[in-house]
Amino acid sequence: MRDQAHEGIHLSTTEETQPIRQEMLAALMGLIDETIATHLQIQVMTEELHAHSELSRACRGVLRDLSRLGPRTVPQLARGRPVSRQNIQLLVNRLIAEDLVEHIRNPEHKRSQLVRLTSHGKVLLDEMEKRETTLLSTLNLDLSLDELQAAGSVLHRFREALEQHHIEQER
What we know:
One of its GO terms (biological process) is response to stress. The protein has helices spanning 22-49, 57-69, 74-79, 85-97, 119-137, 145-170; strands spanning 101-104, 114-117. By secondary structure, it is mostly helical.
């Protein structure tokens, strides 16, 4: 028999899934509350850290996505965010005007160009990440590497379960 710490949380409403126990629900709500509070604190921190930059958080996010994922179309960039394709297009247009990204030919599609970082965009992103890692390296964390990796794994699995539930509900 599995112990409670390893029981899966099922978000599906089908009959074959087990209902979430009250203790698990309370723990899940605690995780959600802490995730939101952490997200908000990260927003405050990054806004202060990048206050001198004229780039919005959304523009910085697009630069980060392009660095992490490589060249993408505007619709591909939009899929990873809770905003419209048109909103991402406006951000990309701004980043193009500032020579931080550029359009390149898309070998898989005649009309939908890829967006990629320019060398100027890469330098700016490197500077942003250096400021962030410098700040993060000064945090007084009472956590081990294993604990940090486990926390990341839990959040990843929780996000995947939410995404899967969303897909199932749309069917």
